[in-house]
Amino acid sequence: MEAKTQNRAIKKVAVLGSGVMGSGIALHLANIGLEVLLLDIVPFDLKEEEKANPKMRNRIVNDAFAFALKSKPAQAYSAASAARVTLGNFDDDMPKIKDCDWIIEVVIERLDIKQQVFEKVDKLRKPGTLVTSNTSGIPIHLMTEGRSEDFQRHFCGTHFFNPPRYLRLLEIIPTAKTDQSVVDFLMHYGDVFLGKETVLCKDTPAFIANRVGVYAMAKVFQLTQELGLTIEEVDALTGPAIGRPKTGTFKLSDLVGNDTGTKVMMGIKENCPNDEQAGAFEVPAYVQFLLDNKFFGNKSKKGYYYKDEKRNSFSLRLDTLQYEPTGKPKFASLDASKKVESLSEKVNAFIKADDKGAQLVKRSLAGLFAYVSNRVPEISDVLYAVDDALRAGFAWEIGPFQYWDIVGVQKGIELAEADGLAISQWVKDFVDAGNTSFYKVENGVKKYYDQASKAYKTITGAESFIILDNLRGNKPVWKNSGGTLHDIGDGVLNLEFTSKMNSLGGDVLQAINKSIEIAEGGYKGLVIGNDAPNFSVGANLMMIAMLAMDQEYDELDIAVRQFQQTTMRCRYSSVPVVSAPHGMTLGGGCEVTMHSDVVVASAETYIGLVEVGVGLIPAGGGTKELALRTSDSFKNGDPMLQSLQDNFLNIAMAKVATSAAEAFDAGLMRKNKDRVVINAKRVIAEAKQEVLRLSEEGYSQPAHRNDIQVLGRTGLGTLTVGVESFIAGGYISQHDAKIAQKVAYVMCGGDLSAPTTVNEQYLLDLEREAFLSLCGEKKTLERIQAMLTTGKPLRN
After folding, report:
1. Which of 57, 239, 466, 715 has the least CB density, counted as fewest CB within 10 Å?
2. SS3 for 177?
3. pTM for this structure?
4. 761: number of Cβ within 10 Å
């Protein structure tokens, strides 16, 4: 694939250095369709007879790339992505970089070694080729010393975060000699083609995300000891309770590597002698204890936490430096935060409390407020860049200035000053001028306070996104407890699910039907999409469980019919319906998506028909739709059974595609019709454009399908033999087999003596009957009960 923008085309990229970051970056570039050349050094310890052996000379890069391919979560979208990466070594293959449009250096963090690599690159690259470094802390301008003018003009820092596929931050760090066109290109390219949150940084130590994020971690290290808290207490307080990853602080350090994190802390302390909070970067004695004993965390299987051979969990006690069984944190403030829904309420539950847990949260936030107030404009001219960097690089739900808005700017100043911390004068001037928040929304557009002009400005590039939160101030077109219908402009509506985890119950189905009805009444079309972490986790299982346990089969029949009619309404309406899935799109969520006119999916969509996991089959049109797509795949002379078997297994094995790219292979998305957007933030805006395109092309309601070929007993016999072999091999249980037989029965059109052509309603009736029969099975009810109580599938 050739990715072209702003008069520059990227067709092939060289990545120099194949460690965890190098291999990860190479795979992410390959994910978007680029050819990638991944090089590393020839091993120093080759024996004489190995020195001419290409395989041995590539041993380092081969091993590193193989390790990356096995890593979890997967770095590659699909096997096809990995196949686009070519491996080689610096000695034999470096001349090949002359064919590359972008060369990314990811070698060891030593300036002298990087300079040696760049000296070779400067001699071999063609003029105009982009050259960037993935350094996380070495000053960018030092790497260009001695290089040609053309090299210097096309050189800057491009700092990815680990793992490169999943963490959305890409920091762009130009030097004074970098061409502005190069900066503009990379900011745009990283956003649109790599799906990243591109953040422009100044060439300052640790740039933005690590400078602030590592400070936040170091401050918590300091407060943990000062307040006499345990590490599991602190992890409970600094995780989802305040909108941050479930690792909290210390598990994150174990995950990253305690040696790595400490190295960054020490680097900031050394390179920022005038930092007013430099004391926070002092390495505590308990961290030094871990380093001295090589307890680096997950990679050494021991850090702040470890598990014994019986999987019992232990954690380090900071006062004794002994490990003890991990305890369960208990704070009134933590309990209060769990009882409320919104992040604003959760954070303020701590602000209003005064136990030790609350003190940790308040004082760590106070430190953060003071710290970022003094980092603007040192590390960035705009405060939103700090928030963008922390959200995308450290997976925080909101950034420091957004936390400050939640707490209240004046209240944040008071908390910081009560702790003896200095707030920058520009914030005090900002408050004195009557301002009360760093952000505000005007006419659906989010604006930030610009320190330099002392005025609110629109965030650069924000016009390319549709953020539903920015529309909250507008009166919705319609809403109920399951969904809100927004007018997103140009005659297009967007239905946002608002149920818990976007599960699909009666209220959501009503919202879908009503939204289509309203759209047909004078709009150009409808987008079904939301900004939540997941598109939908599937049907409301609790409702199904209650009806099944009470043996209310008539009610269940009505509920399933309503679901089928709703998905079919998505397919058969007089205006285009485009779905915009992302994150988990499971069960019923997948079925809604499959019945849309077009799917515009985030690359990070994890989609599948997973009903078998709870003892059921897809009955919202999902089994019917895969039978239909199987029929559409039949061609004269082709072995029909193979296509049937592949789609049957997707349902019977409850397979989940781990990317939108895999969803095409699984038949859940359609080639030449559905499409993928790399940047998740752009999905709704792109789906809107798809509605407009379909409308302008004269969209008309499709005709109902009466031409679905099913194979009857021919297919049923083949699939039954397969199911029996799985039982004989001990791969599935008897109940798995019973469910699989139901799936096979529907997909083959039932017990037909010969291949037959049927319509959609015929298959919908079959899948509904199969679903209802399984609701009467004891083992299915046990599976549903297990899922509702443990969140994990039961294989009984």
Report:
1. 239
2. coil
3. 0.90
4. 14
